[in-house]
Amino acid sequence: MAAEDTLQRAYQRLAEASGDEERLPATARLILAIYDDFYGRFCEYSQRAKSAFESKDPHASVAVSRERLSLYSRYIAEHGPKVKGLYPALSVESSLWENLDRVFAAMIVDRYDADVAFSFAHSMRRNMTHGLWKSVAYSFPPPSKLRKLSMSSVYRRMSVRGRIDAALIGEALSIPGFEVPFENLKRDAERVRARVESVLFEHPESPEPFALDMIEAGFFRDRTAYVVGRWVFAGERYSPFVVALHNGAGGIRADALMHRPSDVHQLFSSTLANLHVTTALYYQTCVFLFSLMPLRPLGEHYSTIGYNHVGKVVILNEINELSDQGHLFSASPGAAGTVALGFTFEDCSYHLKVIRDHPTQSYKWGAFPGVPAVEEKYRAVHEIDRAGSMLDNAMYFNLRLERRMFEPKLLEELTRQAAGSVRVEGEGVFMRSLIAQLKIVPLPLFLEQASEEEIRTAIVSLGICIRNNAATNIFNKDLDSRNYGVGRYDRVFLFDYDAVEKLTDVKIRTNRDREPGEDDIPAWFFEEGTIFLPEELEYGMQFNNDFARRCFREENADLMTVEFWVDVQQKLLSGEVPPLRMYPESNRLGSEHAG
User: Fold this and answer.
1) Residue 503, phi then psi, degrees to nearest 5
2) 169 to each of 143, 158, 191, how far by Cα in Å?
């Protein structure tokens, strides 16, 4: 209630202000009050996620994730027009914002979360100048003194003397401070200790860690909680230590150990819903995670724990650094998109795309719904649980890039085919909207170069991707292999979303019930909406590789049956929350195939 009162008083002060000298500081105080109200609610979600885990309420967990992802955009959409209504000049006069930035930056300079606050203020600015060709920087001031707190403030270092013991593991598992008991903490600690011994000391000459660092927080997503740490070896070498915890009828129990970088990459993938972390030290948390996954861009670590807008700034910083080294944007490898134009630097971690004003002639979905409708699908994907099978999107609006960053041929194509989103003025390239995704290898390109073993692995992963999408009510009606790609650890992801629909809205039909030689037009032909014939899935994938086609039939036969799709639809319509395993079976503590 106090925050709401502060916000209302800030609105009142701006309404009563006259002249820019009064309105500018009043606006800065109002934006900060709006931000404080937002950030206070944002920080509550991690505790709500912890409570949902403790109460074994998967529906509450899903609701927490959905609400937190949309909270930022809801605050901007609600308050941007109100502030603009009280101070209309802000929407057209850039010089006012330059002065406002200076006032606002001075107000937040000593705050730990200054980068989040500054990004929030610029999002307000983009909302107020929406529809105008006015760029707004994605940036924030230098880190505050509070941001430079010692890394030790985010983790607990526990000394290892000789071999690892169960008491040390038990302390690590208890770090989140759960309000409900473990089923048998002593048993779980011993099981984890035994598994750690088997993976850390596979060989007699394996070095021994001298410490275990544990982030002083719980990590929560869906039905699972995680404790996250690292074994510390001489020479500043680290090895991941992440334990998955489930809460069952008998209490909390340890379910799995993740000890390989590939396992941790999968767990923290941006293809999953954000993790909720019960610490406010997001900067130190991301630096810690980077020590476990140094191949993963730092911006992705911010996004993984819910600080998406800070992550967006870090992505642009990487792009600008590569540009300063002389790299030029060129068209992305693989088949050109029907709806999107893709481009990247060769050494960049990200693939960028803009939506064409009109699709190419190969577009097959009737009337094109328009650029805003396609962008809305990308935004919607960002705000759902992507089930480990869909790339996340960082979406930018009113962005300016340097003309020197683009190959001339690419820039000509962008301004010709996406003139509604891209415009060149002098040495600047102004973009009304831009989408960034982690770079992966298009599946057709991967299959051209892969061995038969690698092909089968990719086809199995493709099937998992399609099933996981279905389990979260996502249906890609353009089930074509060109819309999928292969990531660093050979996992397949969907990355093109202009043809994404809700599975519960799709009509599952078949021609297999027709008599041989029957020539009449099937009844489903006259139905409206999206029709899907599962038996045509293999053909729709457009595999150019005979072995890949055979593998798809052998590994994913269930996907080509009406029964599979109808069963998933019925579960979704009944409100069932499907469990999704986010780590390999070999990581489970009961597995005999650890490694």
Assistant:
1) -60, -35
2) 35, 10, 10
Task: Report the alpha-carbon distance of residue 108 to residue 561 in Å, rounded.
Answer: 58
Question: Residue 24 to residues 97, 335, 364, 586: CA-CA distances in angstroms?
Answer: 9, 50, 51, 59
With contact defined as beta carbons under 8 Å apart, do 154 and 285 qualify? yes
Alpha-carbon span 516 to 27, nearest angstrom: 73
pLDDT given for residue 578 in this prediction = 63
By CB atoms closer than 10 A (0-12, 13-18, 19+), residue 546 is exposed
Average pLDDT over residues 521-526: 75
Tokens standing for 30?
Answer: 């109002």
Q: Give 3-30 pLDDT, tens digit per residue.
A: 678 899 999 999 999 999 999 999 999 9
Query: What is the end-to-end Cα distance of the chain in Å, rounded?
Result: 52
The residues, any chain, with a CB within 8 Å of residue 181's CB and separated by 6 or more, are 251, 252
d(CA 228, CA 235): 21
Instruction: Give tens-digit pLDDT for 469-498.
Output: 998 899 999 999 999 999 888 889 999 998
Structure tokens at 353: 């795309």
- Number of Cβ atoms within 10 Å of the Cβ of 20: 16
Among the listed residues 215, 229, 213, 212, the one whose alpha carbon sits nearest the alpha carbon of residue 280: 215
531: phi then psi, degrees, rounded to nearest 5: -105, 135
Tokens of 237: 């070498």
> For residues 199 and 205, what is the distance between their CA atoms, to the nearest angstrom?
13
The whole-number pLDDT of residue 593 equals 41
What b/e string do you get for 172-185 counting C-beta neighbours within 10 Å, with b at 16 or more?
bbebbebeeebbeb
Residue found by looking up tokens 């941790």 in the block: 264
552-586 residue pLDDT tens: 999 999 999 999 999 999 999 998 766 666 677 78
90 backbone dihedrals φ, ψ, rounded to 5°: -65, -25
How high is the pLDDT of residue 577? 65
Residue 508's beta-bridge partner residues? 532
For 257, the enclosing helix (H) or strand (E) is: strand 251-258
pLDDT at position 594, please? Answer: 43
Both tokens of 100, joined, read 């406002």
User: How many CA atoms lie within 13 Å of 18's alpha carbon, on the beta-carbon side?
Assistant: 0
pLDDT at 591 over 80: no
Q: What is the pTM of this model?
A: 0.81
Q: What angle do CA 556, 386, 69 make, to 5 degrees?
A: 170
- The catalytic residues are 392
Mean pLDDT of 152-171: 90
Amino acid at site 563: E
Dist CA 303 CA 310 (whole Å): 8
Beta bridge partners of 532: 508
CA dihedral (72, 77, 79, 84) in degrees, to 10, reads 140
- Contact criterion met (CB below 8 Å) for 588 and 259: no
